[in-house]
Design goal:
Elements (H helix, E strand, L loop, with lengths): L14 H10 L1 H21 L4 E9 L9 H5 L11 H10 L2 H11 L5 H7 L5 H9 L10 H10 L3 H9 L1 E5 L5 E8 L2 H59 L10 H31 L13 H20 L8 H92 L8 E5 L12 H26 L6 H8 L3 E8 L10 E2 L1 E2 L6 H8 L7 H4 L4 H14 L9 E6 L6 H13 L5 E5 L7 H4 L8 H5 L5 H4 L1 E2 L5 E4 L8 H5 L2 H13 L2 E5 L8 H6 L4 E7 L5 H13 L4 E9 L1 E2 L15 H16 L1
Helix pairs in contact: 2-14, 5-9, 5-10, 10-13, 11-13, 12-13, 18-19, 18-27
């Protein structure tokens, strides 16, 4: 059988596999859960009961920071920030040390023994878990000496801290209500502290507002007196300045200086417009010529002369093609054309001179008006400067007068508010006072046990999975197939003479007490499993060896293997005992079987079969002894043994010799099956040499003991040696009821004989 290594891909989630892991390590889960539940019960029983009192207060947002008549008589208008800055500030005040110190002083809590019991209270299970998860236990704790020094400096601060440690302020969502809670070992003390805290909170807000009103009144009085003095000084300054500058009016429309400046500015603007128009006309006329005279010329004389000139010129040009210049009519027409041209040029020159004169006149008028306007501007600026200063003084006087009136009104209002402060009106109200609690809230034994149960289950599952993840041993055929792609020929259960036998599972062991009579007495004396197949062939464990034998025979369809090498990854994996029982099982088919002990370093088969170990394989390979002298008949029918012989100095060279290969050819002709015991693969090179010239190599794996990496390394080395790795045999498996096989029978199998006969018939068919 040639195994195919399966590629290792992404592992699918197998719930059955996880269930098997949990069942395998159920004691980890059970012990973790039991410990946590026991701890929860112990803590719940030993923890001092705590009572919680709760009071509900209403925090309304005030209209202002000063207590006014409107606060008392009108309904409060709430802003959109009810749960904003003001509300959060009040919550912080409720939990402030100064407010709690007021409660401590009023109730004389420093003399109440109930409060001191809170200091020595043991933490609850939840507090311990929270402290462990948040790693707060790593923070350095305050020394008792420091607490003593603090108590001496401020005798109320220590008790205030104790109250704050057990005080909870919790706003009610979507409302302006706040729940104030306090826990104590005394139910009455808890209710008294909550009610006193709520009342002191109201008193604190009233006192704070009255203090603000008082400070505001004093501030207003000082500022009003100072403002009156400043106002009188400003009024005198305004009067003197008006008299000195002789400012009677400050209206621009009634002031002659401003009116004159306005007229000059208007005349100057008109002069600019006239100058620009004259200049444009002058430039237009100056650029006129007879050939390029525009049609839009404004001068009617020039326009008329131009029209006459153009008509004569056109008539002359038309007739010049018909008549010669010396012709009398042409001479007359030429004279009239020249006269019209001279008149047009003369008129254009006159128009240019007139436009130039008008332009210069307009330019001179513009310059004159500009000087007059600038001179008047100086007077206006001087007048405006005095008027502006006067106006600013007047505005200051008006503003100071308005401010004085406002402060005086505010002073009257705060005076009334101060007289009304004795009414203790506040925007804080107690909705529900705290009642004396009847039942403790801590410890909650039922909740603690449930939480401990859940934590135990979760923690136990985590530990079980972690232990399985850290376990890098090969656990069974499925694990082997996923890891290497090799198949398993079968499983040999664990044998223990002192343990009970459980049937039908993956972890199973056998005990002698399951047998009766003489067979039971004989089985009780057996301390190992090396020849159990020979001594007790009807035991279930013997059937397991025969099942493996059958799997080997059917592993190759055409011709069954004759030379089979058994090896392991490391020592103490039950390889020699497996070979001994497998040799017996093959011999039980009536075949001639030879067991070869090729472990020339630590041989054991001669001890199992109780034959002489001095002569054997090493003697034959060195040429000192013939083959007939080294092969010995055992007490089992059809079974011979070739022991290892004396320890040679060079076992690898002997096994790799030509004589060893010839030996294999000789014994193949004489025996039906040759089973070869070899050393562990990772220990020496001997098994690699032997497996290279055998028909089949089988690995013996000790269940839950053989490591995965060494197994992969051993398989890799065997493949390099061209070994035909057929599969593996799992040895020493503690089979459990949730394992790979169905229930076993109690003592003996009725199908033993039929199984042997079926295997024998299959072997005869292959041989025939």
């Amino acid at each position: 059988m040639t195994p195919i290594n399966k590629p290792v891909g992404k592992k699918d989630v197998d719930l059955v596999e996880y269930w098997q892991i949990i069942r395998k390590r159920k004691w980890v889960l059970a012990s973790t859960t039991a410990i946590l539940m026991a701890l929860a019960v112990i803590i719940s029983i030993t923890t001092t009961p705590l009572y919680q009192a709760t009071a509900t207060i209403l925090i309304e947002e005030p209209g202002s920071s000063v207590l006014t008549i409107q606060d008392l008589l009108s309904s409060n208008v709430y802003s959109s920030d009810v749960l904003g800055t003001y509300f959060k500030t009040q919550l912080k005040i409720l939990q402030s040390r100064s407010l709690v110190e007021r409660v401590v002083k009023k109730m004389s809590l420093n003399s109440r023994p109930e409060l001191q019991s809170l200091q020595n209270k043991r933490p609850s299970l939840f507090q311990m878990l929270k402290r462990f998860v948040t790693l707060s236990w790593l923070a350095p704790r305050k020394a008792p000496a420091a607490d003593a020094e603090t108590a001496l400096a401020d005798p109320y601060s220590l008790y205030a801290k104790m109250v704050l440690d057990h005080l909870t302020v919790q706003p009610v969502p979507e409302t302006r209500l706040v729940d104030v809670k306090f826990r104590s070992t005394s139910a009455r003390l808890a209710a008294d502290i909550v009610n006193t805290l709520a009342q002191e909170f109201i008193n604190f807000t009233v006192e704070s507002r009255f203090e603000a009103t008082k400070q505001t009144s004093e501030f207003l009085s000082d500022n009003i007196a100072k403002l009156r003095d400043d106002l009188a000084l400003k009024e005198r300054t305004l009067q003197r300045f008006g008299e000195d500058k002789k400012l009677l009016v400050t209206n621009d429309k009634e002031n002659s200086v401003l009116s004159k400046f306005s007229d000059l500015d208007k005349a100057y603007t008109e002069a600019q417009i006239a100058r620009v128009a004259a200049e444009a006309q002058y430039r237009e006329l100056r650029s006129l010529s007879l050939d390029s005279l525009p049609q839009s010329t404004n001068n009617p004389i020039i326009q008329s002369l131009k029209t006459n000139y153009l008509q004569l010129k056109s008539e002359y040009e038309q007739k010049s093609g018909l008549y010669k210049p010396e012709y009398i009519e042409m001479i007359q027409l030429k004279t009239r054309l020249d006269t019209a041209k001279n008149q047009l040029e003369t008129e254009i020159q006159k128009a240019v001179e007139a436009a130039q004169s008008a332009f210069r006149t307009a330019q001179a008028r513009e310059a004159s008006l500009f000087k007059m306007r600038e001179a008047q501007r100086g007077d206006v600026n001087k007048m405006n400067s005095d008027a502006i200063f006067y106006k600013s003084l007047e505005i200051e006087v008006q503003n100071m007068q308005a401010l004085l009136n406002s402060l005086a009104a505010k002073q009257n209002e705060t005076g009334v508010s101060a007289r009304l402060s004795g009414l203790n009106t506040s925007n804080i109200k107690i909705v529900d006072k705290a009642l004396i609690p009847e039942k403790p809230v801590s410890p909650n034994t039922q909740r603690n046990i449930i939480v401990a149960l859940l934590l135990g289950l979760i923690g136990g599952l985590g530990l079980a999975l972690l232990a399985d993840f850290l376990d890098n041993t090969v656990k069974g055929p499925d694990d082997l197939e996923k890891l290497t792609g090799l198949a398993s020929f079968g499983i040999i259960p664990h044998f223990s003479a002192g343990q009970r036998q459980t049937r039908g599972g993956y972890y199973r062991s056998y005990r002698p007490a399951d047998t009766q009579g003489a067979a039971g007495e004989l089985l009780a004396n057996i301390r190992d499993v090396e020849l159990i197949n020979h001594l007790f062939p009807k035991l279930p464990i013997s059937e397991d060896y025969r099942t493996i034998r059958t799997s080997i025979l059917f592993s190759q369809a055409e011709v069954g293997p004759k030379t089979i090498a058994l090896t392991s990854t490391s020592p103490q994996e039950g390889k020699s005992a497996t070979i001994a029982n497998m040799a017996v099982s093959f011999a039980q088919l009536g075949q001639k079987v030879l067991a070869v002990d090729a472990d020339l370093r630590k041989p054991r088969l001669h001890k199992i079969f109780k034959v002489k170990g001095g002569t054997g394989l090493s003697g034959y390979l060195t040429g000192r002894m013939p083959l007939a002298d080294v092969i010995q008949k055992t007490f089992a029918e059809n079974l011979w043994l070739l022991p290892s012989g004396l320890h040679p100095p060079n076992p690898a060279e002997l096994l790799n010799s030509r004589r060893m290969q010839d030996l294999m050819k000789i014994v193949k002709d004489s025996f039906d099956v040759i089973l070869i015991d070899t050393p562990p693969v990772l220990a020496v090179i001997d098994p690699l040499i032997v497996s290279s010239f055998t028909d089949m190599t089988i690995l013996v794996i000790k269940t839950n003991s053989t490591k995965r990496k060494p197994l992969l390394k051993a398989i890799e080395e065997l493949k390099k040696a061209k070994a035909s790795i057929a599969g593996a045999i799992f040895n020493d498996a503690k089979i459990r009821s949730d394992g790979y096989y169905s229930n076993y029978f109690q003592y003996e199998y009725y199908q033993d004989k039929q199984s042997d006969e079926a295997a024998a018939r299959a072997e005869r068919r292959k041989a025939g």
